[in-house]
Amino acid sequence: MAERETSRSIDAAAAAWVAREDRAPLTSDEEAALNAWLRADLRNAGALLRARAVALRSESARALGVGYDPVDFGAVASRPSRRRMLAWGGGLAASVAGAATIGVVLQAPKAHATDRGEVRLVPLEDGSTVMLNTATRVTVKYDGDHREVRLVEGEADFNVVADRRRPFVVEADGRRFVATTGGGFRVRKLKGALLDILVHQGRVELASQAARNGGPVILETNTRLVLSDALSAGSLSVPQAVEPSVVTRDLAWRDGKIAFQGETLAQAAAAFGRYSDIRIVIQDPALAREPVTGLFAANDPVGFGRAVAGVFGVAVEERDGTVIVGAPSAA
Amino acid sequence: MFSFDDEKTRWFMVSVLPHEPALRAWLSRKRAAGIDVDDVIQETYAVLAARETIRDIRHPRAYVFQIAHSIVVRHVRRARVVSIQAAEDLEGFDPADDAASPEQTAVDRDELRRLAKAIAAMPGQTRQAFILRRVHGLPQREIAVRMKLSESTVEKHIGRGVRFLIDWFGHGGKAGSQTSRVVEPEKSALDGRARNQSKH
Predict the structure, then answer these.
(1) What domains are there in chain B, each with its CATH number?
(2) How many Cα atoms are found within 13 Å in the side-chain-facing hemisphere of A261?
(3) Which is deepest, A42, A253, A295, B75, by most CB within 10 Å?
(4) Measured between CB atoms, does B109 come within 8 Å of chain A?
């Protein structure tokens, strides 16, 4: 029998197997070798399970978006970071894809935007972050006294570092949300829908509107507020407490996912519409009213359409950027 | 034999992986002579890998701690040299350890940020390959073209990246140098022997 391997070398071997699987499906020879390796030491299977889980966890890095720069997260720049290149300007900046749009805004406010289907984390200079959901635009303005972010359109999740001297303010539709502590909150401003804010950590104050008792409207952790159209004092909205599980579902987009819990298929199809140009059409009105529950990849409307068709036993067809669920079929 | 379906991998990622730093700390406190914490953790996970299904595990954290405890007991018995200290430390399983730590509830929220930091902490070329694979979603073949490396070199970098994350997450996001594990000062004295990992 071979000498007992160290746990370190086992971890290295397990990681190598995961990388091998990630490159291409295993050949039958490789499959046999993997099985032999699994039998060779009691610990190997445990190491492989962990390596696979870690690899799976790293898949959500996709949600960081292509704008992810490790330098923003403490990496030592082995080459000039994208941002520094911009500061140098000139030919260097021009050679960096997508630099032009950012390059012009060295002066505040800075604009950040995502395309349809894109999710991106934008680190701010004070360590706070904004995660932008699909088709979202924000402008950021920092000075000695203020930290202000304007949500022009879309949906963004703010994670705020507390700074007593500089309140963190998010403005949307003329409303001002002030984070009075460090924490996290999500603001959504979509066409044809009411302004929606969800606080998942800390406290947020709605500055531009008084509560019924005359004081400010305060949102505590795990509360949500849907604001009516009118800014008038007569239309007061009251924050509602929400379950942690609802918060988690609401924020699933940060991992590139969409979560449904009993929404109708029609609503689910519409939700996918925010993330891609591919439309999902549910042909049968009765089917469109069926509830759907589950976690889906936001960028895969076709996969969602197939899953739905599979569950309800109807046909699915893809045509000209449209996924038709319940399409008439020969079957 | 072992089953490694996606469901189990996902379950493991969500229900077990976040508890590894706590499990590691707990095992280190046991001070049982001759115990290699990393060995015990791998063996513990192997028990999960060998299970037909994980659906009937209702309290994953408690379950994993229990398995680890029984493995420690077995190791110590096998070593035959049980110091008094070790015997004392093996007394029972402290249920207090099972309470989900407060930071546990915040895991989801910061997960992406942690991942961003972990990737940023990887060594240069590994980091670049890993970002192209996981953030940009390029297949290894294409990464090889872009980085002007052979495919097998890219595969090695991806493997190193996974290896790096195993250490990083297992130690609660505090991987030290690029490839070596962090050895906390108070721990190194205890299991320095095990960490040297002389073949036995």
Answers:
(1) 1-105 (no CATH), 108-200 (1.10.10.10)
(2) 8
(3) A253
(4) yes
Q: Using the beta-carbon criterion (under 8 Å), do B120 and A73 form an inter-chain contact?
A: yes
Provide, as residue numbers in chain A, all residues whose Cβ is less than 8 Å from the Cβ of B112. 60-61, 63-64, 121, 131, 254-255
SS3 A212: coil
**Which chain A residues are within 8 Å of B131, Cβ to Cβ?**
61, 68, 70
Is residue A69 in a domain?
A: no
- Tell me the residue range of the domain where A286 lies: 256-325
Give A41 to chain B, closest Cα distance, Å: 10
Q: Which amino acid is at B7?
A: E
- Per-residue pLDDT band for A211 (boundaries 50, 70, 90) equals low
User: Touching check for B151 and chain A: CB below 8 Å?
Assistant: yes
- Asked if A272 and A263 count as a contact pair (C-beta separation under 8 A), the reply is no
For chain A, what is the mean pLDDT? 81
Give the dihedral of Cα atoms B110, B113, B115, B117; nearest 10 deg.
Answer: -130
Q: What is the mean pLDDT of residues A297-311?
A: 82
pLDDT at B196 over 60: no
CATH number for A314: 3.55.50.30
* Burial track B26-46 (b if 16+ CB lie within 10 A, e otherwise): bbeebebbbbbbbbbbbbbbb
What would the pLDDT profile of A26-65 be if each residue is shown by its tens digit? 999 999 999 999 988 889 999 999 999 999 889 888 877 7
Residue B158 forms contact with A (CB below 8 Å): yes
**Contacts of residue A7 in chain B, CB cutoff 8 Å?**
36, 38-39, 41-42, 197
Question: Based on the domain organization, do A201 and A155 belong to the same domain?
Answer: yes
- A:211-250 residues touching chain B, CB 8 A cutoff: 244, 248
Q: Which of A3, A22, A58 sits opposite B115 (nearest CB)?
A: A58
Q: How far apart are alpha carbons B138 and A85 in whole angstroms? A: 24
SS3 B198: coil
- Domain annotation covers residue A297: yes
| Chain B residues inside the 8 Å CB shell of A75 | 120-121, 127
Do residue A280 and residue A239 come from a single domain? no
Q: For chain A, how many structural domains are there in total?
A: 3
Which string of DSSP letters, residue by residue, matches A112-170? EE--TT--EEEE-TTS-EEEE-TT-EEEEEE-SS-EEEEEEEEEEEEEE---TTS-EEE
Q: Which of A204, A219, A247 is the last residue of a domain?
A: A247
Distance (Å) from the C-alpha of residue A24 to the closest C-alpha of chain B? 9
The answer to whether B45 contacts chain A (CB < 8 Å) is yes
CA distances from A171 to A128, A151, A177, A178 (A): 16, 6, 6, 9
Amino acid B124: pLDDT: 87
